[in-house]
Design goal:
4 copies of one chain form a homotetramer.
Chain A: E1 2-10, H1 19-30, E2 37-40, E3 45-49, H2 51-67, E4 72-82, H3 89-97
Antiparallel strand pairs in A: 1-3, 1-4, 2-3
Helix pairs in contact in A: 1-2
Amino acid sequence: MAIVDITVIPVGTATPSVSGYVAEIHKFLKGYEGKIKYELTPMSTLIEGDLKELLEIVQQLHELPFQKGAQRVCTNIRIDDRRDKENTMERKLKAVENKL
Amino acid sequence: MAIVDITVIPVGTATPSVSGYVAEIHKFLKGYEGKIKYELTPMSTLIEGDLKELLEIVQQLHELPFQKGAQRVCTNIRIDDRRDKENTMERKLKAVENKL
Amino acid sequence: MAIVDITVIPVGTATPSVSGYVAEIHKFLKGYEGKIKYELTPMSTLIEGDLKELLEIVQQLHELPFQKGAQRVCTNIRIDDRRDKENTMERKLKAVENKL
Amino acid sequence: MAIVDITVIPVGTATPSVSGYVAEIHKFLKGYEGKIKYELTPMSTLIEGDLKELLEIVQQLHELPFQKGAQRVCTNIRIDDRRDKENTMERKLKAVENKL
Protein backbone atom coordinates (compact mmCIF):
# COMPACT_ATOMS: atom_id res chain seq x y z
CA MET A 1 0.00 0.00 0.00
CA ALA A 2 1.50 3.33 -1.05
CA ILE A 3 0.26 6.90 -0.88
CA VAL A 4 0.68 9.39 -3.73
CA ASP A 5 0.36 13.16 -3.31
CA ILE A 6 -0.12 14.81 -6.70
CA THR A 7 -0.46 18.28 -8.14
CA VAL A 8 -1.15 18.74 -11.86
CA ILE A 9 -0.38 22.26 -13.09
CA PRO A 10 -1.29 23.37 -16.64
CA VAL A 11 1.18 25.96 -17.93
CA GLY A 12 0.22 28.66 -20.44
CA THR A 13 -3.51 28.68 -19.77
CA ALA A 14 -5.34 32.00 -20.20
CA THR A 15 -6.20 32.45 -16.48
CA PRO A 16 -4.47 31.66 -13.18
CA SER A 17 -7.42 29.50 -12.08
CA VAL A 18 -6.84 25.72 -11.91
CA SER A 19 -9.91 24.64 -9.90
CA GLY A 20 -11.62 23.44 -13.09
CA TYR A 21 -8.70 21.13 -13.81
CA VAL A 22 -8.69 19.85 -10.20
CA ALA A 23 -12.46 19.20 -10.42
CA GLU A 24 -11.82 17.10 -13.56
CA ILE A 25 -9.30 15.05 -11.56
CA HIS A 26 -11.87 14.32 -8.86
CA LYS A 27 -14.61 13.47 -11.38
CA PHE A 28 -12.12 11.02 -12.95
CA LEU A 29 -11.21 9.49 -9.57
CA LYS A 30 -14.89 8.81 -8.82
CA GLY A 31 -14.59 6.00 -11.35
CA TYR A 32 -12.00 4.29 -9.11
CA GLU A 33 -14.01 4.40 -5.89
CA GLY A 34 -13.78 1.05 -4.09
CA LYS A 35 -10.33 0.36 -5.55
CA ILE A 36 -8.48 3.34 -4.10
CA LYS A 37 -9.00 5.94 -1.37
CA TYR A 38 -8.49 9.57 -2.32
CA GLU A 39 -8.72 12.93 -0.62
CA LEU A 40 -8.75 16.56 -1.82
CA THR A 41 -6.56 18.95 0.14
CA PRO A 42 -6.13 22.69 -0.49
CA MET A 43 -2.79 21.98 -2.15
CA SER A 44 -3.03 18.57 -3.82
CA THR A 45 -4.85 15.27 -4.16
CA LEU A 46 -3.83 12.28 -2.02
CA ILE A 47 -4.42 8.78 -3.34
CA GLU A 48 -3.89 5.53 -1.43
CA GLY A 49 -3.64 2.13 -3.11
CA ASP A 50 -1.42 -0.32 -4.94
CA LEU A 51 1.58 1.58 -6.34
CA LYS A 52 1.42 0.11 -9.84
CA GLU A 53 -2.24 1.14 -10.10
CA LEU A 54 -1.51 4.55 -8.57
CA LEU A 55 1.14 5.30 -11.24
CA GLU A 56 -1.31 4.29 -13.99
CA ILE A 57 -3.84 6.68 -12.45
CA VAL A 58 -1.15 9.39 -12.18
CA GLN A 59 -0.52 9.16 -15.93
CA GLN A 60 -4.23 9.54 -16.68
CA LEU A 61 -4.60 12.50 -14.29
CA HIS A 62 -1.57 14.12 -15.95
CA GLU A 63 -3.32 13.78 -19.32
CA LEU A 64 -6.58 15.50 -18.26
CA PRO A 65 -5.46 19.15 -18.78
CA PHE A 66 -4.27 18.25 -22.31
CA GLN A 67 -7.80 17.02 -23.03
CA LYS A 68 -9.04 20.49 -21.98
CA GLY A 69 -6.63 22.21 -24.41
CA ALA A 70 -3.52 22.75 -22.29
CA GLN A 71 -0.20 22.62 -24.23
CA ARG A 72 2.09 22.02 -21.25
CA VAL A 73 1.56 20.27 -17.92
CA CYS A 74 3.93 20.20 -14.94
CA THR A 75 2.99 17.39 -12.55
CA ASN A 76 4.51 17.02 -9.11
CA ILE A 77 4.30 13.72 -7.25
CA ARG A 78 5.31 12.59 -3.78
CA ILE A 79 5.22 8.86 -3.08
CA ASP A 80 5.34 7.51 0.49
CA ASP A 81 5.79 3.74 0.44
CA ARG A 82 6.37 1.97 3.76
CA ARG A 83 6.60 -1.81 3.95
CA ASP A 84 7.30 -2.63 7.61
CA LYS A 85 3.80 -1.44 8.63
CA GLU A 86 0.36 -0.96 7.09
CA ASN A 87 0.84 2.41 5.41
CA THR A 88 -2.61 4.03 5.19
CA MET A 89 -3.57 7.71 5.30
CA GLU A 90 -5.64 6.98 8.41
CA ARG A 91 -2.83 5.23 10.28
CA LYS A 92 -0.32 7.97 9.40
CA LEU A 93 -2.60 10.72 10.79
CA LYS A 94 -3.28 8.74 13.99
CA ALA A 95 0.45 8.08 14.49
CA VAL A 96 1.07 11.86 14.58
CA GLU A 97 -2.09 12.82 16.51
CA ASN A 98 -1.27 10.26 19.26
CA LYS A 99 2.01 12.12 19.80
CA LEU A 100 0.48 15.59 20.14
CA MET B 1 -1.45 35.40 1.26
CA ALA B 2 0.44 32.27 0.17
CA ILE B 3 0.08 28.60 1.02
CA VAL B 4 3.05 26.33 1.71
CA ASP B 5 2.88 22.52 1.60
CA ILE B 6 5.89 21.04 3.39
CA THR B 7 7.36 17.63 4.12
CA VAL B 8 10.47 17.33 6.30
CA ILE B 9 12.23 13.98 5.92
CA PRO B 10 15.15 13.00 8.20
CA VAL B 11 17.58 10.70 6.37
CA GLY B 12 19.68 8.07 8.15
CA THR B 13 17.51 7.67 11.24
CA ALA B 14 17.42 4.25 12.89
CA THR B 15 13.76 3.51 12.05
CA PRO B 16 11.43 4.26 9.11
CA SER B 17 9.00 6.08 11.42
CA VAL B 18 8.75 9.88 11.05
CA SER B 19 5.54 10.56 13.04
CA GLY B 20 7.59 11.77 15.99
CA TYR B 21 9.24 14.41 13.81
CA VAL B 22 5.89 15.46 12.32
CA ALA B 23 4.44 15.78 15.85
CA GLU B 24 7.35 18.11 16.75
CA ILE B 25 6.43 20.26 13.73
CA HIS B 26 2.84 20.59 14.94
CA LYS B 27 3.89 21.33 18.54
CA PHE B 28 6.10 24.08 17.10
CA LEU B 29 3.32 25.50 14.92
CA LYS B 30 1.03 25.79 17.97
CA GLY B 31 3.18 28.76 18.93
CA TYR B 32 2.10 30.56 15.73
CA GLU B 33 -1.65 30.08 16.16
CA GLY B 34 -3.49 33.33 15.39
CA LYS B 35 -0.79 34.42 12.94
CA ILE B 36 -1.04 31.54 10.47
CA LYS B 37 -3.47 28.74 9.64
CA TYR B 38 -2.07 25.23 9.36
CA GLU B 39 -3.39 21.78 8.65
CA LEU B 40 -1.98 18.26 9.00
CA THR B 41 -2.62 15.96 6.04
CA PRO B 42 -1.54 12.30 5.71
CA MET B 43 1.31 13.41 3.44
CA SER B 44 2.41 16.87 4.57
CA THR B 45 1.65 20.01 6.55
CA LEU B 46 -0.12 22.94 4.88
CA ILE B 47 0.50 26.46 6.19
CA GLU B 48 -1.29 29.62 5.07
CA GLY B 49 0.00 33.13 5.75
CA ASP B 50 2.41 35.87 4.66
CA LEU B 51 5.09 34.33 2.45
CA LYS B 52 8.05 35.97 4.19
CA GLU B 53 6.82 34.64 7.53
CA LEU B 54 6.07 31.23 6.02
CA LEU B 55 9.65 30.87 4.74
CA GLU B 56 11.01 31.81 8.18
CA ILE B 57 8.77 29.11 9.67
CA VAL B 58 9.92 26.65 6.97
CA GLN B 59 13.53 27.15 8.03
CA GLN B 60 12.68 26.48 11.66
CA LEU B 61 10.63 23.37 10.80
CA HIS B 62 13.55 22.14 8.68
CA GLU B 63 15.83 22.50 11.74
CA LEU B 64 13.66 20.44 14.12
CA PRO B 65 14.92 16.95 13.12
CA PHE B 66 18.53 18.14 13.61
CA GLN B 67 17.58 19.09 17.18
CA LYS B 68 16.43 15.45 17.64
CA GLY B 69 19.80 14.13 16.40
CA ALA B 70 19.25 13.73 12.66
CA GLN B 71 22.38 14.28 10.51
CA ARG B 72 20.59 14.91 7.21
CA VAL B 73 17.21 16.40 6.35
CA CYS B 74 15.52 16.51 2.95
CA THR B 75 12.72 19.09 2.94
CA ASN B 76 10.22 19.40 0.11
CA ILE B 77 8.15 22.56 -0.29
CA ARG B 78 5.35 23.56 -2.63
CA ILE B 79 4.33 27.23 -2.62
CA ASP B 80 1.05 28.37 -4.19
CA ASP B 81 0.93 32.17 -4.37
CA ARG B 82 -1.98 33.79 -6.21
CA ARG B 83 -2.40 37.55 -6.27
CA ASP B 84 -5.48 38.22 -8.42
CA LYS B 85 -7.76 36.66 -5.78
CA GLU B 86 -7.77 35.96 -2.05
CA ASN B 87 -5.75 32.75 -1.95
CA THR B 88 -6.87 30.85 1.17
CA MET B 89 -7.04 27.11 1.78
CA GLU B 90 -10.78 27.45 2.36
CA ARG B 91 -11.44 29.34 -0.88
CA LYS B 92 -9.35 26.90 -2.93
CA LEU B 93 -11.29 23.89 -1.61
CA LYS B 94 -14.65 25.59 -2.25
CA ALA B 95 -13.62 26.58 -5.79
CA VAL B 96 -13.10 22.88 -6.60
CA GLU B 97 -16.07 21.52 -4.64
CA ASN B 98 -18.42 23.97 -6.41
CA LYS B 99 -17.39 22.40 -9.72
CA LEU B 100 -18.03 18.79 -8.67
CA MET C 1 8.43 13.49 -25.17
CA ALA C 2 8.38 14.23 -21.46
CA ILE C 3 11.09 14.85 -18.89
CA VAL C 4 11.02 13.38 -15.39
CA ASP C 5 13.13 14.68 -12.49
CA ILE C 6 13.27 12.08 -9.72
CA THR C 7 14.70 11.73 -6.23
CA VAL C 8 14.39 8.43 -4.39
CA ILE C 9 14.96 8.76 -0.63
CA PRO C 10 15.18 5.67 1.63
CA VAL C 11 13.97 6.45 5.16
CA GLY C 12 15.35 4.70 8.27
CA THR C 13 18.61 3.44 6.78
CA ALA C 14 20.94 4.02 9.78
CA THR C 15 23.36 6.29 7.81
CA PRO C 16 22.66 9.62 6.09
CA SER C 17 24.47 8.54 2.91
CA VAL C 18 22.31 7.84 -0.17
CA SER C 19 25.01 7.81 -2.89
CA GLY C 20 24.96 4.01 -2.96
CA TYR C 21 21.24 4.06 -3.75
CA VAL C 22 21.73 6.72 -6.43
CA ALA C 23 24.54 4.64 -7.99
CA GLU C 24 22.13 1.68 -8.16
CA ILE C 25 19.66 3.91 -10.04
CA HIS C 26 22.29 4.80 -12.62
CA LYS C 27 23.46 1.19 -13.01
CA PHE C 28 19.80 0.29 -13.64
CA LEU C 29 19.33 3.11 -16.19
CA LYS C 30 22.35 1.87 -18.18
CA GLY C 31 20.07 -0.93 -19.32
CA TYR C 32 17.78 1.60 -21.02
CA GLU C 33 20.48 3.44 -22.98
CA GLY C 34 19.29 4.09 -26.54
CA LYS C 35 15.63 4.21 -25.43
CA ILE C 36 15.87 7.16 -23.02
CA LYS C 37 18.30 9.96 -22.19
CA TYR C 38 19.22 10.45 -18.57
CA GLU C 39 21.46 12.78 -16.57
CA LEU C 40 22.76 12.79 -12.99
CA THR C 41 22.57 16.15 -11.21
CA PRO C 42 23.72 16.90 -7.65
CA MET C 43 20.08 16.80 -6.51
CA SER C 44 18.27 14.28 -8.71
CA THR C 45 18.21 12.22 -11.88
CA LEU C 46 16.63 13.62 -15.04
CA ILE C 47 15.16 11.20 -17.58
CA GLU C 48 13.79 12.10 -21.01
CA GLY C 49 11.54 9.82 -23.06
CA ASP C 50 8.02 8.56 -23.64
CA LEU C 51 5.97 9.30 -20.54
CA LYS C 52 4.39 5.84 -20.23
CA GLU C 53 7.85 4.26 -20.34
CA LEU C 54 9.23 6.88 -17.93
CA LEU C 55 6.58 6.05 -15.32
CA GLU C 56 7.35 2.33 -15.65
CA ILE C 57 11.02 3.18 -15.08
CA VAL C 58 10.06 5.42 -12.12
CA GLN C 59 8.33 2.47 -10.44
CA GLN C 60 11.40 0.27 -10.88
CA LEU C 61 13.75 2.99 -9.58
CA HIS C 62 11.44 3.44 -6.57
CA GLU C 63 11.78 -0.30 -5.85
CA LEU C 64 15.61 -0.38 -5.85
CA PRO C 65 16.16 0.75 -2.21
CA PHE C 66 13.72 -1.95 -1.03
CA GLN C 67 15.90 -4.51 -2.78
CA LYS C 68 18.83 -3.17 -0.68
CA GLY C 69 16.87 -3.64 2.56
CA ALA C 70 15.11 -0.28 2.98
CA GLN C 71 11.69 -0.45 4.73
CA ARG C 72 10.39 2.93 3.56
CA VAL C 73 11.02 4.98 0.43
CA CYS C 74 9.88 8.54 -0.27
CA THR C 75 10.10 9.31 -3.98
CA ASN C 76 9.67 12.79 -5.40
CA ILE C 77 8.90 13.30 -9.08
CA ARG C 78 8.55 16.35 -11.30
CA ILE C 79 7.17 15.82 -14.79
CA ASP C 80 7.51 18.47 -17.50
CA ASP C 81 5.41 17.53 -20.52
CA ARG C 82 5.10 20.07 -23.32
CA ARG C 83 3.25 19.24 -26.55
CA ASP C 84 3.37 22.42 -28.65
CA LYS C 85 7.14 22.02 -29.15
CA GLU C 86 9.80 19.31 -29.07
CA ASN C 87 10.42 19.10 -25.33
CA THR C 88 13.99 17.83 -24.89
CA MET C 89 16.50 18.57 -22.13
CA GLU C 90 18.83 20.02 -24.73
CA ARG C 91 16.23 22.36 -26.22
CA LYS C 92 15.10 23.58 -22.79
CA LEU C 93 18.67 24.50 -21.76
CA LYS C 94 19.29 26.31 -25.06
CA ALA C 95 16.01 28.23 -24.77
CA VAL C 96 17.23 29.70 -21.45
CA GLU C 97 20.89 30.16 -22.44
CA ASN C 98 19.83 32.09 -25.57
CA LYS C 99 18.09 34.59 -23.31
CA LEU C 100 21.07 35.20 -21.00
CA MET D 1 26.04 24.19 3.65
CA ALA D 2 22.72 23.22 2.06
CA ILE D 3 21.62 22.71 -1.50
CA VAL D 4 18.30 23.97 -2.87
CA ASP D 5 16.68 22.69 -6.07
CA ILE D 6 14.02 25.13 -7.24
CA THR D 7 11.45 25.41 -10.01
CA VAL D 8 9.34 28.56 -10.33
CA ILE D 9 6.23 28.06 -12.47
CA PRO D 10 4.00 31.02 -13.45
CA VAL D 11 0.37 29.94 -13.91
CA GLY D 12 -2.01 31.63 -16.38
CA THR D 13 0.59 33.25 -18.63
CA ALA D 14 -1.08 32.68 -22.04
CA THR D 15 1.94 30.79 -23.50
CA PRO D 16 3.50 27.52 -22.33
CA SER D 17 7.03 28.95 -22.54
CA VAL D 18 8.83 29.63 -19.25
CA SER D 19 12.42 30.04 -20.51
CA GLY D 20 12.12 33.82 -20.22
CA TYR D 21 11.26 33.49 -16.52
CA VAL D 22 14.14 31.04 -15.98
CA ALA D 23 16.53 33.43 -17.72
CA GLU D 24 15.41 36.19 -15.30
CA ILE D 25 16.26 33.85 -12.40
CA HIS D 26 19.78 33.34 -13.72
CA LYS D 27 20.30 37.06 -14.40
CA PHE D 28 19.25 37.66 -10.79
CA LEU D 29 21.59 34.97 -9.44
CA LYS D 30 24.55 36.59 -11.24
CA GLY D 31 24.36 39.24 -8.53
CA TYR D 32 25.15 36.59 -5.88
CA GLU D 33 28.21 35.12 -7.58
CA GLY D 34 30.98 34.57 -5.01
CA LYS D 35 28.47 34.06 -2.19
CA ILE D 36 26.66 31.03 -3.62
CA LYS D 37 27.19 28.41 -6.32
CA TYR D 38 24.36 27.78 -8.74
CA GLU D 39 23.70 25.57 -11.73
CA LEU D 40 21.03 25.46 -14.44
CA THR D 41 19.65 22.02 -15.23
CA PRO D 42 16.99 21.16 -17.84
CA MET D 43 14.42 20.87 -15.03
CA SER D 44 15.40 23.34 -12.32
CA THR D 45 18.06 25.57 -10.79
CA LEU D 46 20.38 24.21 -8.09
CA ILE D 47 21.82 26.63 -5.53
CA GLU D 48 24.43 25.80 -2.88
CA GLY D 49 25.11 27.99 0.15
CA ASP D 50 24.03 28.96 3.65
CA LEU D 51 20.42 27.86 4.13
CA LYS D 52 19.17 31.13 5.62
CA GLU D 53 20.58 33.02 2.63
CA LEU D 54 19.24 30.40 0.21
CA LEU D 55 15.69 30.84 1.54
CA GLU D 56 15.97 34.63 1.18
CA ILE D 57 17.09 34.09 -2.42
CA VAL D 58 14.22 31.61 -2.94
CA GLN D 59 11.71 34.27 -1.93
CA GLN D 60 13.19 36.77 -4.39
CA LEU D 61 13.26 34.20 -7.23
CA HIS D 62 9.62 33.37 -6.45
CA GLU D 63 8.77 37.09 -6.84
CA LEU D 64 10.37 37.52 -10.30
CA PRO D 65 7.42 36.22 -12.43
CA PHE D 66 5.08 38.60 -10.56
CA GLN D 67 7.37 41.46 -11.65
CA LYS D 68 6.82 40.28 -15.26
CA GLY D 69 3.03 40.38 -14.85
CA ALA D 70 2.20 36.85 -13.64
CA GLN D 71 -0.82 36.62 -11.29
CA ARG D 72 -0.03 33.21 -9.79
CA VAL D 73 3.26 31.40 -9.15
CA CYS D 74 3.74 27.78 -8.01
CA THR D 75 7.25 27.27 -6.68
CA ASN D 76 8.66 23.86 -5.87
CA ILE D 77 11.71 23.49 -3.64
CA ARG D 78 13.84 20.56 -2.57
CA ILE D 79 16.34 21.16 0.22
CA ASP D 80 19.17 18.71 0.92
CA ASP D 81 20.93 19.62 4.16
CA ARG D 82 23.57 17.23 5.50
CA ARG D 83 25.61 18.06 8.59
CA ASP D 84 27.84 15.05 9.20
CA LYS D 85 29.85 15.81 6.04
CA GLU D 86 30.64 18.74 3.75
CA ASN D 87 27.52 18.80 1.61
CA THR D 88 28.52 20.35 -1.73
CA MET D 89 27.15 19.69 -5.22
CA GLU D 90 30.62 18.59 -6.29
CA ARG D 91 31.08 16.12 -3.44
CA LYS D 92 27.60 14.62 -3.96
CA LEU D 93 28.28 13.97 -7.67
CA LYS D 94 31.68 12.41 -6.92
CA ALA D 95 30.19 10.18 -4.19
CA VAL D 96 27.85 8.67 -6.79
CA GLU D 97 30.32 8.59 -9.69
CA ASN D 98 32.89 6.73 -7.51
CA LYS D 99 30.33 3.95 -7.05
CA LEU D 100 29.56 3.49 -10.77
